[in-house]
Amino acid sequence: xxxxxxxxxxxxxxxxxxxxxxxxxxxxxxxxxxxxxxxxxxxxxxxxxxxxxxxxxxxxxxxxxxxxxxxxxxxxxxxxxxxxxxxxxxxxxxxxxxxxxxxxxxxxxxxxxxxxxxxxxxxxxxxxxxxxxxxxxxxxxxxxxxxxxxxxxxxxxxxxxxxxxxxxxxxxxxxxxxxxxxxxxxxxxxxxxxxxxxxxxxxxxxxxxxxxxxxxxxxxxxxxxxxxxxxxxxxxxxxxxxxxxxxxxxxxxxxxxxxxxxxxxxxx
Length: 268
Prior knowledge:
The chain has ten helices and two strands. It is mainly alpha-helical. Strands 1-2 form a two-stranded antiparallel sheet. Helix 5 (126-157) packs parallel to helix 10 (217-250). The longest helix is centred in the last third of the chain and has 34 residues, at 217-250. The chain starts with 7 loop residues before the first helix and ends with a strand.
């Protein structure tokens, strides 16, 4: 059973509402208004393209095409994490650290789910692999971006304190413990809120999609619980690794704070 088809007129009406909101926001914040409009256009184009890609994947199911799409998704997520930072190194190492954290936090648990928990044959079927990976990457990306941002901002705000503690002989791991803790806490806030609100305040996206498609509610709930637990675990793994790699870049081998490696991006 499938839900009713949506027409271009239906989508256009929703777009007009967003445009109206952007118009009301514009006198207060031109940047935010433009962000809404650009985000809407970008989202629409990206989803239309992924729809065409998925249609082609469903008609030609091979592991190599699924891996290629997964790699593109990972690279795009890595770019988004770094592009959203207020303080940046503008180096390949900066991008590499974000990619590594997301790859370990998202890919490993997605593979576990596909091979062990879902058990569909073939395990790489795009109907399961791409949505699972997309949800894992999307949530892990947000958490890692928040964690890195909080750590870098904390290091700049507490520069004098950090340098004083380092001068007294503390290793960098001990000197930066408070900003490390704050970064982990900041990154976990979205997933903790999602778990706390699911089923009471909101119906998560995967469950909603299955219900609209006519799936059994209990089955939809089971899948939603699975993906939320995987997201929580993947997010935790990702931010632990990303925070460690980010902090390591803040200090050199002589335990000196190296904020000179970073430049401030005034657009963020």
